[in-house]
Design a protein that fits this description.
- The structure is a single chain.
- The chain is built from 4 helices and no strands.
- The longest helix is centred in the middle third of the chain and has 21 residues.
- It has one domain.
- The two termini are 23 Å apart.
- With 109 residues, it is mainly α.
- It is 72% helix and 0% strand.
- Helix 2 runs antiparallel to helix 3, helix 2 packs parallel to helix 4 and helix 3 packs antiparallel against helix 4.
Length: 109
């Protein structure tokens, strides 16, 4: 396993856990939207290192966007949490930023 895959898996688990626990369980956090942007942007950048080819990368980005949508929908089942379009926008902005930066950092896109 590569370090990128380990970080991607660990980051995915951390994001999933952080988004699907009740708010009362979380410590005071800095700006929530910045955290969403950085979390999904980081996962997208790690994905860019894990796959080769533009099509595979685009599918990974779509998968991340769908995963963030699923997480937001599942938050309706968690006490004190709800779906938030602004969180979705921050997730999508992080993914889009990574999509724009990946070709600058990797020559295979």
């Amino acid at each position: 396993m590569t370090w990128e895959l380990i970080l991607f898996a660990a980051g995915s688990c951390a994001i999933l856990a952080g988004c699907l626990v009740p708010n009362a369980w979380l410590p005071p956090l800095p700006n929530d939207k910045v955290m969403h942007f950085l979390a999904f942007g980081t996962l997208a950048m790690l994905a860019s290192r894990l796959v080769t080819g533009r099509t595979a990368f685009q599918l990974c980005l779509l998968g991340l966007l769908l995963a963030s949508l699923l997480i937001e929908v599942l938050q309706n089942l968690v006490p004190g949490r709800k779906f938030c379009w602004r969180d979705m926008a921050a997730n999508a902005a992080g993914i889009a930023t990574a999509a724009l930066l990946a070709p600058l950092l990797h020559s295979n896109y």
